[in-house]
Structure formats: structure tokens, C-alpha cells
Amino acid sequence: MSDKDKAMAYWKANVRLILISLVIWAIVSFGFGIVLRPLLSGIAIGGTDLGFWFAQQGSILVFLGLIFFYAFRMNSLDRKHGVDEE
Amino acid sequence: MDQFTLNLIFVGASFALYIGIAIWARAGSTSEFYAAGRGVHPVTNGMATAADWMSAASFISMAGLIAFGGYTASSFLMGWTGGYVLLALLLAPYLRKFGKFTVPEFIGDRFYSQTARLVAVACLIIASVTYVIGQMTGAGVAFSRFLEVSNTTGLLIGAAVVFMYAVLGGMKGITYTQVAQYVVLITAYTIPAVFISLQLTGVALPPLGLFSEYTTTGEPLLARLDMVIQDLGFAAYTLQDTSFLPMLNMFLFTMSLMIGTAGLPHVIIRFFTVPRVADARWSAGWALVFIALLYLTAPAVGAMARLNLVDTIYPNGATEQPIAYDERPDWIKNWEITGLLRFEDKNGDGLIQWYNDRNANFAETATERGWQGSELTVNNDILVLANPEIAGLPGWVIALIAAGGLAAALSTAAGLLLAISSAVSHDLIKGAINPKISERGELLAARISMAVAIAVATWLGLNPPGFAAQTVALAFGIAAASLFPALMMGIFSTRINNVGAVAGMLTGLIFTVVYIFLHKGWFFIPGTNSFEDTIAGSLFGIQSTAIGAVGAILNFAVAYGVSKMTADTPQEIKDLVESVRVPRGAGSAAADH
């Protein structure tokens, strides 16, 4: 595989990972926290409902998990495709 | 020891620390001045980014916004943290790989256009200057309340301290003072929050306390809060308006804050200071860890402070008589002096009636009780600052809050000032006016730009334009509609060309600024607005604070359309984009500078 093909395969894998992460990012904040909150209103948590928890706390925790997950996965992608820094 | 002496010791000690760091971390080259020599550890950079990001607005105002906005204010929480996901996934690693010093420099090189670079400089300066005014006025408020000096003296002291470490140390000095400022501000924020959480719920961790039981009655805290404020005619704290337009506005506002956060240059340039591309990714994660410590605490502080306030005014419950003005606690007296809390005895009975007098459905109940309008006006901003007094905490906690508020304002101001001065010295002076300037000449130019930027910011802080509070919408709107899309397209597309990028940026910028002016008045002059800035009164049913996301969509669409119709990007630009996408070689990209 040429360097160009390698770089292309690496970039495709990266974009795929970004898309997956952004879908989760959108579901927990814009989804559970805003648009889908009425659907989650049946699930009670601490005097209110799950959507309120996602809007004020849950989404932030998921964001944190997402960035570290992405950084971790990218490090192994860098190595796998031979584009990591020495 | 009296409160004033304590405040003086805490603030004085923190300032001495910042100046000590300034002397230790002097910058010797432009690389150190602009990017701290690219030798900052990712965790250290994460902490500095957190202080850089968390402004006077986050520290002082946000909990108050949540306290009085309830669920709707969740936009701030999701928006100001969710932007870091975009930064980590879409921008930071690639811009670090690019290996230059400023955001306009990337835009200029990638779109091979001096015009694009200058448009980016204009966006950067408008966004950062409007933002810095808020920091300076915030510092002034903290000084005048806690150190009993005039606003002017306070601001000048603050400016002198920033001058010391920003002019001497550039990014290097700013980075290490921001680390110290983060420690000061997070300690100051957390300690009173823990005590209040313990008092109200018996749970030490505020984010858990928020969803626990209120010990006095055994009900869940949020259910209790919903009930007592509805008894006073306010909307329930956790209430969501599920009709179409309010939901759309919350959606777009959150989106605007997220992409605005990711597009703000003073945050982006922090990621130029780490040694490697992988570090930029980790560092964004660490930044969010340190930011989340405050952002998870803030909603708890907001809800608990609101409940505390109702309990203070209505000690026998919200359906019983409130306390008499003569028996008000000391902290109310302290804050009345500042004018941020006001009492007016409208029905002349000597009691403090505090309720929602704009709720038509509650008017009958109020008239029955002989109430003639709400008699207490509470400014959002005092909740965090007054928290330790409301909770009856010792004097040193109050002193810590004073030092914390100043740390939040000064750390953000320094980051913004660096973004402004590097755009002037690197993009305007070296990039456009005198490209042959020597390394030493540029370093001197950078220091002079910084000094001028501080002077301008101080002047604006002393003479705040009447619109200071409104301009945050402008800063986020511009970053969201203009800078973020250009940066993202520059990395994720090889097809967007010079003409497309400039057309897109200008469309996003002009659309957003005009929309904001149509609703808030031209140049924020009252009375010159054509539309009311409410959901019902606005042009498209979208409030001006939420319009940045729409501007961003227009930017993407125009850039794509125009690029399709004009010549393809040259091969060397395609190669540049491809090199930015892979981490290997980040070290050498920095070395040839």
C-alpha cells in the first residue's frame, strides 16, 4: 500500500469514528436533553425526570467520556496506520 | 481579623503569586510568546484552558442564570461544554499539526487568500474585544464589593497585574498563571457549594445533592423547589415548554454556544502550546475535566441558592407571610449597598413580598393577600458572590470567593488579550504590513500590541458601553457563524477554495451581525431595533442569541455552492490539507518556523 492509500484509509477510519462520536454527542444533548425529553418524562430521577438530568448533568459526563474515548481510539488508529508521532 | 483585611490578604497573596510566575516565565522568542515554546504538558494545558475559558460570566453569572432560568438555562451547561467535543474531534489536533501561531494564519494559508486572513482577523478582534469588556467590568465589580476601592482603582490594579505577566511572559507567562488561577477559582467555587449542599441535603457532593432529598421536609430537593416557587407564581424550575418555537430556540441557542465555543480563537490557540497532535486530543479531554468540575457544581448552586433565598424570605413556607424588612439578615444589608439587591415596600406593610408579579394567573392571589407588586429585585450576579454569606460561612471563604472571581476574570482577559495581540503582531504586522520583520522585531511588536490591547481593554472597562451585557451574543454569534465553519471546511474538505471561503465567511458574519442588530438595535443603540428580541416578536421566530447556528449553516452552504462554481483548489493546497490530517511530522512543522 502506498503512503497515499495508507493516509486515505486512516482518514476514512477517523471520519467514521468522528461520525459515531457526534451521533452520541447529539443524542444525549439535543436528543435526551431537549427534543426527546417529553418522551423520557416517565423515568423519574431525584424529584424530576431523566431528560432534566441529561440537560444539566448527564450530557456533560457523556461529553467527557466521548473525548477520552476518541483520543484513546485515535492513538491506536495512528499506530495501526503508521502515522503516529515518534 | 475583619473581613476587609482577610479579603486583602487573599487577593494580595494570589496577585503576588501571579507576579512571581510572571518573573519566572519570561518569554525569550516569538515561539514562546505565541505558543509557550510548544512545551506545555497536556494536563497543564487542560487546566490553563479551563481558566482561559471560564470567565467572569461562568464564575459569577452562570449559577444565577440557572437559578432564575431553571431548565431552560441548561443551554449554557450543554453549550459551553459540548463545544469541547467539537474542538477535540474537529479542530484542535489538525490546527496543532498545521503548526503555526494564529487562527487567521491557518485560514489565510489554507484558503491561499490574504482577504480570507484579514476577514478572520476582523472576526477575531470583534469577538475578542467584546468578550474582554465583560471580563474587565467583572473584575471591577469584584474589586469594588470586596476591597472597598473604587471601580477605577480596582480595574487599574487588575490591568497592572495582567500587564506584568502578559507583556513579559506572553503565552508562556499566561499559561502558568492560568494554572494558578484555575486552582484559586475552583477552590473558591467548590467550598461554599459543598457547605450549602450539606446544609440542604446532607450530601457533600453538590451534583449528587441536586438530585437528593431536602433534609427539612424529606422531599426531593427539585420537587420542593418546583413547589415553593409555583406557590409564588413563578414557573416550575424543571418545566419545559414543549411547543415548537421554544424548543427550536433552545436547540439553536445550544448549538450556537457549542460551535461558538469551538470557534473562539483564544480557546483554540491554547492547543498550539502542546508538543504533539495526540497531546492536543488528550488536552481537550483534560480541559473538559477541569471545566466540568465547575459546570457540574453550578446547576446545584443555582437550584440550592434559589431555594435558600425563598426560605430566607418565607421562613414559614411560601404560602405564609414573608419576613419583615427590619428583620432581614445581614447579607441582604451588605448587598443592598451595592444596588444589586433592592427592596421597595410597595404596599407599605413592612414585609418583603417577593413573587412573580408578571404572571396574570397569579394576580388574583396576590391581590387577595394585599400584595401590590414584587418588592425585592435580585440581580443574577450576586448568587455566587453572596453564597458564603447566605450560608453563614466564615470570613475566609468570602475572601476566597473574592480572589476566585478575580482569577476567573483576569485569566480569561489575559487569554483574549493574547489572541488579539498575536493577531495584530503576527497577522497584520508580519503578515501584511512588514513581512521582513526580524524575530526580535516581531517579539517587540507582540509586546507593544499586548500593552496597547491592555490599555484599550482597561479604557473600555472604565467606560463600559451601555451594551456590555449584550455583546456576549455577538462574540459567540461571530465565532459560530464565521470562524468555526471556515476552520472545519478547511480541514474536512479539499474542494472549498479561496472565493468560496471568503463568500461563506462574509455571508455568515453579515447575516448574523445584521440579525442581532435588527433585534438589539444597530450597534446596540436602544430604540433602533426593528423587531422585539423575543420568540414571538422576532423576525424568524428565532431570538438573536440563537441565530449563530443559522449563520453557520448559511456559511457552509454558500462556501460549498461558490466553490463548486469556481476553479478547483491548487495541488499544493490539497497536499497541505492532507498533511494536516495526519499526525506524523508535527515536530518538524514547528521547527521550520
Automatic annotation (TrEMBL), chain A:
Superkingdom in the source lineage: Bacteria
Annotated Pfam families: DUF4212
Transmembrane segments: 17-40, 52-72
Record's keyword terms, sorted: Membrane, Transmembrane, Transmembrane helix
Occurrences of domain Sodium symporter small subunit (ranges): 9-84
Keyword Transmembrane helix set for record: yes
Annotated protein name in UniProt: Putative solute:sodium symporter small subunit
UniProtKB/TrEMBL annotation, chain B:
GO molecular function: symporter activity
Pfam families in UniProt: SSF
Protein name as annotated: Cation/acetate symporter
PROSITE patterns, sorted: NA_SOLUT_SYMP_2, NA_SOLUT_SYMP_3
UniProt cross-references to InterPro entries, sorted A to Z: Na/Glc_symporter_sf (IPR038377), Na/solute_symporter (IPR001734), Na/solute_symporter_CS (IPR018212), Na/solute_symporter_VC_2705 (IPR019899), Sodium:Solute_Symporter (IPR050277)
Annotated family: Belongs to the sodium:solute symporter (SSF) (TC 2.A.21) family.
Biological processes annotated in GO: carboxylic acid transport; sodium ion transport
Record keywords: Cell membrane, Ion transport, Membrane, Sodium, Sodium transport, Symport, Transmembrane, Transmembrane helix, Transport
Superkingdom assignment: Bacteria
One Gene Ontology CC term in the entry: plasma membrane
Principal place of residence: membrane
Regions that span the bilayer: 6-25, 77-95, 116-134, 154-171, 183-205, 250-272, 284-305, 396-424, 444-462, 468-492, 499-518, 538-562
Membrane-related topology note: Multi-pass membrane protein
Cell membrane recorded as keyword: yes
Localization: Membrane
